[in-house]
Design goal:
By secondary structure, the protein is of the alpha/beta class. Helices cover 33% and strands 27% of the residues. It is globular, with a radius of gyration of 18 Å. 38% of the residues are buried. The protein binds adenosine-5'-triphosphate.
Length: 239
């Protein structure tokens, strides 16, 4: 019996009567690396935002470890995410921000430093000791900060919206390795949305395709998945 961590029931979101998401049921087991793909406007960010209680569902609900996310804050200590730059604090340096997140999650400065030391390749000398505010970092470097901040405090659930976008090819490869290592650890459930079919199939064991707010494919990743996805999105182009 799989240990279900995230469960959604009858989830819909509509704006002014227009439905943008409709997921009758979705279960995500503990430890799964879950990839969400879909064209622009398919509903990926909407789904993640509801998981994080940033927007309210029109109907239905999401539970994380049996906690209804819109009714209690108890899921927050074991969940971390980076959706966009609004998750950063522009007037802090990277170090200040990491320590701030550490404080929130009960992680000491020394432990934060220890974690950061493991990301020196990923940071490529452009994040730490820069005496620069986060708002003055490049988009890609801001993203690196946001992603690494999600690892502070050993969260059980990590949600990353388009983590590969804006990153240079070398950093994308490093990020894939980091995500693979995380997903090898079956304690961490990781949810990623991406437009990069190759990256997402490489790091996720399950791929869900959203089209106009509905799940049209839900598959365990195999050798054939990338080709199937390319065929699916190619055929969409013909329509
Ligand atoms: N506040 C809002 N008011 C009205 N419509 C909205 C609002 N927020 C999102 N939408 C609509 O919801 C739909 C889903 O958007 P969403 O951002 O979830 O898509 P996405 O799959 O993340 O797209 P992308 O790949 O472009 O990031 C879109 O049609 C979008 O215009």
């Amino acid at each position: 019996m799989e240990n279900i961590l995230i469960n959604t029931q009858n989830l819909t979101k509509a704006y002014k009567g227009v439905e943008v998401l409709n997921i009758p049921e979705l279960e995500i087991p503990k430890g799964q690396s879950f990839g969400l793909v879909g064209n622009n406007g398919a509903g990926k960010t909407t789904f993640f935002s509801m998981l994080l209680d940033l927007i309210q569902p029109t109907t239905g609900q999401i539970t994380s470890k049996n906690i209804v996310v819109s009714e209690s804050e108890d899921w927050k200590p074991f969940t971390s995410s980076f959706i966009d730059e609004s998750f950063l604090i522009g007037y802090l340096t990277a170090e200040e921000y990491f320590y701030f997140i550490g404080d929130l999650r009960g992680v000491s400065k020394a432990e934060v430093d220890e974690l950061l030391a493991g990301f020196s390749d990923f940071f490529h000398g452009e994040i730490l000791n820069q005496k620069k505010y986060l708002r003055d970092l490049s988009k890609g470097n801001q993203k690196k900060v946001g992603i690494v901040a999600t690892f502070i405090g050993n969260p059980e659930v990590i949600i990353l919206d388009e983590p590969f976008a804006n990153l240079d090819p070398t950093t994308q490869i490093r990020l894939k390795k980091i995500i693979k290592e995380l997903s090898d650890n079956n304690e961490v459930t990781i949810l990623i949305s991406s437009h990069d079919l190759m990256h997402v199939t490489e790091v996720c064991e399950r791929i869900v395709v959203l089209n106009k707010g509905e799940i049209v494919k839900d598959t365990q990743t195999s050798e054939a998945t990338l080709e199937e996805l390319n065929a699916y999105f190619g055929q969409e182009e013909m329509n």
